[in-house]
Amino acid sequence: MPSTFHNLRVLPAALCLLLASASPFAAEAAGSGWPTSRPAQLRQQAAATAMLAAVSTAGGRIVAVGDHGVILLSDDGKEYRQARSVPTRAMLTSVAFIDRSTGWAAGHDGVVLKTVDGGEHWKLLRQQYGQEQPILSIWFADADKGLAVGLFGMALSTSDGGATWIEVKLSSGDAADRHLYRIVATASGTLLIMAEAGTVFRSEDGGKHWDVIDSGEKGSLWSATAFTDNGASTVVAVGMRGHVIRSADDGRSWQAVASGTTQSLTDITQLSGRELAAGGMGGTVLRSNDGGRHFTLEHSAGDEPITALLKAPDGQGVLLFSMAGVVAPGP
């Protein structure tokens, strides 16, 4: 098992390159012959598949995505089933919904998928077989406008629901090629992208222009959650070596927060009000009851890396997802 979540995400991309022929264009030409181009298989132990991301839809359904194109659905956070049809076996790393029915998933091979029935069936919108830049985060403002980001500074935007995508240049200079890990929209509508080397990209105009923010952190920032705390647009981000940073001014400036762990943290979510939960390597789960000012070690959920956390549908506890699949709900 690699020692950091960065390796967990980058390694599959490297494997894609090794499997590809001399160039990504040759891989594209291979089309249906590419290993991940076939539809995802229904698996007997689907809930034990590595999961990379999860989301709760407006209707309360849990949608989790992961390896081999596996997409899991649950309406109670306890029983999971596979989506009825997924047209790829690529590793899926991100998922986003704008309502109870319409959502997108993305991942390796530059894949972007769309569903209009709550995740039961998915349509392939984009793929670039053998591409060395997997999509690591996808976000949509509405049914048309969206953004996707990934390794080596890759950023893409769409204005037609994901049918077509154009490249976006976030910055120039040293920050231009940094890995981009997570897109977050704040309470005020500002867009933030958590990135490599403690970098935060910030846009107040829906992604047309971006500022490069030095958070003061040196390691990669893998996830963040945004919420309103006492009237302030607040963001808490997590990353390598257990580092946590917090912004109370809509992502303009950041302060370090003691996490109480050196385990790298891969995801963070708001449970309710000022209550947050974060998870990471070694099954680490942290909890904050004051909007991310302080954290305590809640428990360890085994040795597998926690990759995503969600508030349980009944409001009791937190749902955990890992490289070993769905984990029993935590406290």
TrEMBL record:
Residues 1-26 form the signal peptide. CDD domains: Sialidase_non-viral (cd15482). The keyword Signal applies. Residues 83-220 form the Photosynthesis system II assembly factor Ycf48/Hcf136-like domain. Transmembrane segments: none annotated. The keyword Signal applies. The lineage of its organism: Bacteria, Pseudomonadati, Pseudomonadota, Betaproteobacteria, Burkholderiales. It comes from the Bacteria. PANTHER family: PHOTOSYSTEM II STABILITY/ASSEMBLY FACTOR HCF136, CHLOROPLASTIC, PHOTOSYSTEM II STABILITY_ASSEMBLY FACTOR HCF136, CHLOROPLASTIC. InterPro entries: PSII_CF48-like_dom (IPR028203), WD40/YVTN_repeat-like_dom_sf (IPR015943). Keywords: Photosynthesis, Photosystem II, Signal. It comes from Collimonas rhizosphaerae. This is YCF48-related protein.
